[in-house]
Amino acid sequence: MSNNHYTKYKDTIKKVARRNYYKRVQWLNEYLIGKACKYCSESEAICLKFHPHDAKVRKLSKRKGLNETSREEIKQLLSECKIVCSNCWLKIDNDLIEFI
């Protein structure tokens, strides 16, 4: 037996959830605007990653809310990370660049 409220507003609930998800993803993309790779100065936001916690930062960013208290864990991880481009990330992983 389903709840009539959720059945009635199913599409609206989905739209709001999707909109909020995209806002959380956009927050991280906006954070990267104006930043550049530590090694090669690549500044294209789509190419930039957070070494060494990129996957964790992106996963948490999609799940946590946008208010300050929800973002504290993400901001803590960001403070521990260096911004590098995808190419330099591969070079660091293969010991072609010394990560300092």
Shape: elongated
Q: Would you tell me the structural class of the helices and strands? A: mainly alpha
Q: Tell me the span between the first and last alpha carbons.
A: 58 Å
**Largest sheet descriptor:** 2 strands, antiparallel
Total number of beta strands: 2
Report the sheet-strand fraction: 5-15%
Helix content: 55-70%
Count the domains.
1
- Could you state the oligomeric state of the chains shown? single chain
One letter per element, helices H and strands E, the order comes to HHEHHEH
Please state how the strands of the largest beta sheet are arranged side by side.
Answer: 1-2
- Any low-confidence stretches, pLDDT <50, length ≥5? none
Q: What's the Cα radius of gyration? A: 18 Å
Count, helices: 5
Instruction: Report mean pLDDT, rounded to a whole number.
Output: 90
Can you walk through the features of this model?
- The chain has helices at 4-8, 10-32, 54-63, 68-80, 86-93; strands spanning 48-51, 82-85.
- The protein has five helices and two strands.
- The mean pLDDT is 90.
- A two-stranded antiparallel ribbon has the order 1-2.
- It has 100 residues and is mostly helical.
- The longest helix is centred in the first third of the chain and has 23 residues, at 10-32.
- Helix 2 packs antiparallel against helix 3 and helix 3 packs antiparallel against helix 4.
- The chain has one domain (4-93).
- The relative contact order is 0.15.
